[in-house]
Specification:
The protein is an alpha/beta fold. Helices cover about 35% and strands about 25% of the residues.
């Protein structure tokens, strides 16, 4: 079961808005109120479904829950315990305090009192204190840090004598303190338990999901993949903030006025293919969901096919496909087209069959959103040709391509002004941009954990063929054998196209990012 669908939410969540908080008023709750023997017996279920047993007797279980209105979670608890569940609501803070105390008592480790601290200050972990904290508290500390800095993934990799710990931020791996080898299995076990995975094997691939409290009424949604490795296991946990994702759907992420106008014009079309492209973990799905958020859901039938579903949206019909579902993208898309949708979001165009079905869906009056993995927007045309589409099919169906990268944003509290170096000046001139008098470099302060960078910023590149008849004509006449990507890129630039690198340089000139971030996706960097 996907715990994202039943994880508790903060005040103001859909559960609250339906009056559930009135049906289940929160009551004070402490560790002393827990039936300890029942907790020890039901610990994996407690951690996964967010409840604590206050009484377990025969067929009756009294469950203190953060979200007692979540019928899916209650049903799972009944199935797990074979008991009838009487539920009542407790606060997330009381749940976390009681759970921390219980975990400490189970391991005979003194409990520590934690404070919320200053939310404006990011404290980079210097070590993992397994003597003063339980393994679950260490896991929570890792998730909380990744959540606060905006990391896309947590990476745990067992080595011969230790476990590597890292996060992925802005597409880059950032090393954190390692974990001692004798603690690695316990830490991995915690992540398995909260994701509902088997804790009895280390020789199989496993996938799961969980919702994890990070304080302040917020929760991190985790998508966890565990892989056997040479020295044990490797874990990758995709970290998402569902509330933030939903809030991002209220507005488009494009700050450039020209890009914003193009996107708004495309979203008014009844049919066409809109593709987001870029590396894994750089926000393609988030951008497409922000586009869906601008559509009139009261008038349009909107459906998605995803592998897996990234985060649940209450007013969109989301359909998981891929491993474990028995459905492929191609089969799912053909089925959806028989359900009279107006708008379909595809997870990824992976083969000729899916690409062909997408253009046929456009021809029959559908607006299709999809993702591809290419280096930039121009590469989408070449990729679709490689997948077996004709130039004419691409030209008549392709409405907009959005290529994007996430780059590290400079901390506004400690950035340092510097004069451009000769190489940096040459880089701006290479793209016909004025050389700024000042660029900025990372500094370091408590608010950014002494890193000099805080969060990420998106960089976008648009390919909008309908805006230029010559571009559309070149695409229409293209074939896999004749398409010259470099010539098309030059023609697109003359027609007003602005590349990812050029857009990144503009961000650097404004002091949003350091110039070095642009070099991470520049394939022709200036040299001394």
């Amino acid at each position: 079961m996907d715990s994202k669908t039943h994880g508790p939410g903060p005040a103001g969540s859909p559960a609250d808005s339906t009056g559930s908080s009135f049906r289940y008023p929160r009551v004070p709750f402490e560790a002393e109120d827990v039936d300890v023997l029942a907790y020890e017996a039901l610990r994996p279920a407690c951690l996964r479904y967010g409840f604590l047993p206050s009484l377990s007797h025969g067929i009756l279980l009294d469950a203190a829950m953060i979200a007692p209105w979540d019928e899916a979670a209650v049903s799972a608890i009944r199935h797990s315990t074979h008991q009838e569940v009487r539920r009542f609501a407790i606060s997330e803070a009381d749940f976390d305090r009681a759970l921390s105390r219980l975990e400490a008592e189970v391991r005979n480790v003194p409990a520590t009192n934690s404070s919320a601290g200053n939310q404006d200050i990011i404290r980079r972990p210097e070590t993992w204190d397994f003597f003063g904290k339980s393994a679950r508290e260490i896991a929570a500390e890792m998730v909380r840090f990744a959540f606060e800095v905006g990391a896309s993934d947590i990476l745990l990799d067992e080595q011969e004598g230790w476990m590597d710990v890292a996060v992925k931020l802005g597409g880059q791996k950032e090393i954190l303190p390692p974990v001692e080898k004798d603690r690695a299995a316990t830490l991995l076990r915690v992540f398995k338990e909260i994701a509902g995975l088997s804790t009895n094997t280390i020789n199989t691939w496993q996938s799961g999901a969980a919702s994890f409290p990070v304080g302040g009424g917020r929760r991190a949604d985790l998508r966890i993949e565990i892989t056997p490795s040479l020295h044990g296991e490797s874990l990758v946990a995709r970290v998402q903030d569902r509330e933030l994702q939903l809030s991002r759907m209220r507005a488009l992420p494009f700050t450039d006025p020209a890009q914003l106008r193009i996107a708004q014009a495309c979203l008014k079309q009844a049919q066409g293919l809109i593709i987001a492209t870029g590396p894994t973990g750089h926000g393609k799905t988030t951008t497409l969901y922000s586009c869906l958020g601008q559509l009139d859901r009261s008038a349009l039938n909107i459906r998605t096919l995803e592998d897996p579903v990234e985060f649940a949206v209450p007013w969109i019909t989301q359909i998981p496909v891929g491993a474990g579902t028995g459905r492929s993208f191609g089969e799912g898309l053909k089925s959806l087209l028989r359900q009279a949708p107006h708008v379909i979001l595809m997870g990824e165009i992976r083969d000729h069959a899916v690409a062909q079905t997408c253009v046929e869906a456009v021809d029959t009056g559908h607006l299709i959103f999809a993702t591809l993995h290419t280096r930039d927007a121009i590469g989408v045309v070449a990729r679709l040709l490689d997948l077996g589409l004709t130039g004419r099919q691409i030209a008549t169906s392709l409405l907009l391509v959005i290529s994007q990268r996430l780059v590290r944003r400079l901390c506004p509290h400690c950035l340092r002004p510097v004069a451009p170096t000769p190489i940096e000046a040459r880089h701006f001139a290479q793209y016909d941009l004025p050389v700024p008098e000042t660029l900025h470099q990372p500094g370091g302060c408590p608010r950014c954990g002494q890193q000099g960078e805080l969060g990420v910023a998106p960089v976008f590149e648009f390919l909008y063929p309908p805006a230029d008849d010559d571009l559309a004509d070149v695409i229409g006449r293209a074939s896999r054998e004749t398409f010259n990507e470099q010539e098309f890129r030059s023609q697109w630039s003359r027609a007003g196209g602005s590349s990812l690198v050029r857009e990144g340089l503009l961000l650097a000139a404004r002091g949003t990012i350091a110039h070095r971030e642009v070099l991470r996706f520049e394939r022709n960097p200036p040299i001394a």
